[in-house]
Amino acid sequence: MAELKPFPHSELIGRATVSAVHLEMRDAYVPADPSFIAFMGGPPYDRGPREAEWHSLIKPAVARGVVVRRARIVSEPVTDYIRYEHAVTESMNLSAGEQVRWLSRRRAADLCLPGTDFWLIDDRLVRFGHFSGVGDLLGHELTEDRSVVKLCSSAFEAVWERAVDHQDYRLV
């Protein structure tokens, strides 16, 4: 696997021709995120530009036939950060054309999962994201190793099969 400098989502999603799947397994990300801080009662934050940027990436991919799916494995009761993610999923992810599902960590206990979050593009390219203990992004690794791709594909599909559609998932 090759260590990468920042690898923009636009390049990653832009390469997709069939599918882009994302498995998230952390209970908190980026504690200094101004949108999360606003959600928690801090200073107001306009999510419009952030959502518009994400939509400008995902909508064209979906329009060209790429299936974009995101699965989130979460501890229950959920953290404040997961409450925040759940609250913004409709406007950020679903309205862009993503499909999103949620799975309780208890229901994932017997699944073989990679040690960190990842994007899998077209069942050929994996980008792992590495985070600090508090959720700051530390970097990425990129691989096309077939055994790693197979592990990530199998893991994602196992999670997806058990997970609950965003519309039906109730926060605990």
Short description:
With 172 residues, this protein is α+β, with helices and mostly antiparallel strands. 34% of the residues lie in helices and 25% in strands.
Fold and architecture overview:
The protein has 172 residues and is of the alpha+beta class. It contains five helices and eight strands; from the N terminus they run βαβααβαββββαβ. An eight-stranded mixed sheet has the order 1-7-6-5-2-3-4-8, sandwiched between helices. The chain is globular and about 45 Å long. Residues 1-6 have low confidence and may be disordered.
Which short descriptors sum up this protein?
172 residues, alpha+beta, 8-stranded mixed β-sheet, 25% strand
Helices, strands, pairings?
Elements: E1 2-4, H1 9-15, E2 19-24, H2 34-39, H3 48-63, E3 67-74, H4 80-92, E4 99-104, E5 118-121, E6 125-131, E7 137-143, H5 146-162, E8 164-165
Parallel strand pairs: 2-3, 3-4
Antiparallel strand pairs: 1-7, 2-5, 4-8, 5-6, 6-7
What spatial order of strands do you see in the largest sheet? 1-7-6-5-2-3-4-8
| Quaternary status | single chain
Q: Please estimate the helix content.
A: 25-40%
Strand elements, count: 8
Judged by helices, strands and strand pairing, the structural class is: alpha+beta
Q: End-to-end span in angstroms?
A: 37 Å
Largest sheet: 8 strands, mixed
Could you spell the SSE succession in H and E letters?
EHEHHEHEEEEHE
Tell me what portion of residues adopts beta-strand conformation. 25-35%
Overall pLDDT confidence = 93
Q: Number of helical segments?
A: 5
Report Rg: 16 Å
- The low-confidence parts are 1-6
- The general outline is globular
